[in-house]
Amino acid sequence: MGTNVENKTVIISGASRGIGRATAMLLAQHGANVIVTARNADDLNELQVEATQGSVRGKIIVAPGDVSNESAMAAVVKTAYDQFGRIDVVINNAGYGIFKNVDEISVEEWDSLMATNVKGTFLLTKAALPILKAQGSGHIVVVASDVAKRTFAGGSLYTASKYAQEAFMGALRKEVRPFGIKVTGIYSGLVDSHFHAKGHGHETSTHYLQSEDMAESMLFIISRPAHVVIDEFMVHPLAQDY
């Protein structure tokens, strides 16, 4: 089966590094026009420069913004629509983790993580929905985690955010299918990225998934024929027992 995303307009949040960055580069290489957003404008600009120097058929447009800010996400969506006249895919990838016992988590940490992982998914999706509904087509992808399906000690805050994303997707899926809009949750296991405390490339992460593996998964998901939707996509490194 093909991987045709040529000329599709794709918005990716959390695109400054890791999975988001790898996905933006891969989709642009396959001819998609990718609007990348994150708080770090310098990293996004570096990605854009790298894309222009490589074998990239599509465009990468930089639109910095904080996913927890409603007006910022509305501006990102407007940039995409103004540039290309449509939006085909929205990839909600922005997120981070805090891993502590419940009595060690501060209120500020709780609010900050939920604002990025959950509110950010809501705001970017909400901003894009009127355009997708008017088109009668579109695809919303949420990069969740396998911990949207399980819990572990020290993971109360992070798993709560991923369970919230899971519930959000479930309701959204029922709302938007009549409009021809697809919703996919991608649930990853361990990924070798900056997400982990020891950082990208540490010897303990040798057998983890790579960001490029997740990017390839994303490409597969969004390039299915119009009548096909992958509702849920679970992916793990073989070394991880799920």
From TrEMBL:
- Is the NAD keyword given for this protein? no
* Parts forming coiled coils: none
Can you tell me which family this protein belongs to? Belongs to the short-chain dehydrogenases/reductases (SDR) family.
Instruction: Say if the entry is tagged with keyword Transcription.
Output: no
Under which name does UniProt file this protein? Answer: SDR family oxidoreductase
Q: Which residues form the Ketoreductase domain?
A: 8-194
Q: Which UniProt keywords apply?
A: Oxidoreductase
Task: Recall the taxonomic lineage recorded for the source organism.
Answer: Bacteria, Pseudomonadati, Bacteroidota, Cytophagia, Cytophagales
| Top-rank taxon | Bacteria
